[in-house]
Specification:
362 residues; mainly alpha
């Protein structure tokens, strides 16, 4: 594993926590939480922060090792069994994101280009990026993520005349239960940052780095959620498949600049490719830890082709893809909370015994 800087670790945390939530997730949250959807993001932020602390606390007990190495080396049988659901989750995210990005490009940009052609080009770009190793993925985050954040910061400024405060009232009209119902989507999405400790040891991913990345992602998504609510209202946003994208299309800077979503697409698509590349690299790295005889460099192209095939085998159309968000979010929520707590307990420090080894020693 290449050594990356703490700044790059922060950026990776932001991209994992924010990117998968940007387009379609607000629809599900508004359906359940209505105008109180912004509270679901706040609740998710607090829960994921606790889970992230538990993971980084675990890696700090074993200096120089990430969670994949700790699980496989400390408990070869049980550890490998716990790695399998993590790899399954990564695989599902990869095929979902490849198909989601393909459908998005087809609908919004290249209506006459077949979806398989676009998917093949996306997978090819991902494979080339992964073949360049982890350091290149981190550097791509340094290029595309700041550009996306700049564009997202301009959205509320340009949409301010469309805001109506009445869309936010009354607060908690149906109590706190809808907020909890909507939060399991946001926890599952923001919880993708919990994959970082599986690749980065505590020296590269400190707790303050994790909090920084998670906080930036939460502030961004919280503010964009409020922009959607103020400009459209929860009733309209809950009916739109991609409420954030439709909100951006409301922007009219001048009569000659009415397609503000196009420059956003120019930076959003490469950022999504970078995210998929991270998941593919993490999957291949986890497979190497699970089966040391495997070599990622020789299998990345074959696995990329496998992801391309499965993205069409699992999802025949965009409706199935959108419905899968509920199943994947439930699986992610169980995995993030349950596995994190299990790892924290299973790899807790040993009790000090006179004449014995120190806590955390192997």
């Amino acid at each position: 594993m290449e050594i990356i800087s703490n700044r790059q670790a922060k950026l990776l945390g932001i991209i994992l926590a924010i990117d998968g939530m940007l387009v379609s997730l607000p629809n599900k949250v508004f359906q359940l939480s209505a105008r109180d959807a912004w509270m679901a993001y706040l609740l998710a932020y607090l829960i994921v922060m606790v889970l992230l602390w538990m993971q980084i606390r675990t890696t700090s007990r074993f200096p120089g090792k990430n969670l994949f190495q700790i699980m496989v080396q400390r408990h070869p049988v049980v550890g490998r069994a716990l790695v399998l659901p993590v790899l399954l989750f990564m695989f599902l995210v990869i095929i979902r994101d490849v198909r989601t990005l393909s459908e998005f490009v087809t609908v919004e940009l290249l209506a006459y280009t077949p979806v398989p052609v676009i998917s093949a080009l996306i997978v090819l770009a991902v494979v080339v990026t992964v073949s360049s190793r982890f350091e290149v993925i981190s550097r791509m985050c340094e290029i595309w993520l700041p550009l996306v954040l700049v564009f997202l910061a301009l959205v509320p400024v340009l949409l301010f005349p469309e805001f109506e405060i009445r869309h936010t009232l009354p607060i908690l009209e149906k109590g706190f239960v809808p907020v909890i119902q909507g939060s399991w989507y946001t926890v599952a999405a923001m919880g993708q940052i919990l994959l970082l400790p599986f690749l980065l040891p505590s020296a590269q991913l400190r707790m303050k780095d994790g909090i920084y990345g998670l906080s930036i992602a939460w502030v961004t998504m919280e503010w964009l959620n409020l922009c959607i609510l103020l400009s459209m209202g929860s009733a309209v946003a809950s009916k739109l498949q991609n409420p954030f994208y439709e909100m951006v299309r409301l922007i009219r800077v001048t009569d000659f600049l009415d397609r503000f979503e196009l420059p956003l697409d120019m930076v959003y698509v490469p950022l999504m490719i970078t995210k998929v590349a991270f998941f593919l690299f993490a999957f291949m790295y986890g497979m190497e830890q699970l089966i040391p005889a495997l070599h990622m460099d020789k299998l990345v192209l074959s696995f990329g082709a496998c992801c391309f095939s499965f993205s069409f085998w699992f999802f025949r159309n965009a409706s199935q893809l959108f419905s899968f968000l509920r199943t994947l979010s439930l699986f992610a929520l169980i995995l993030e909370v349950g596995l994190t707590c299990l790892i924290f307990v299973l790899f807790r420090p040993k009790q000090n015994v006179p004449g014995g080894s120190s806590p955390g020693s192997t």
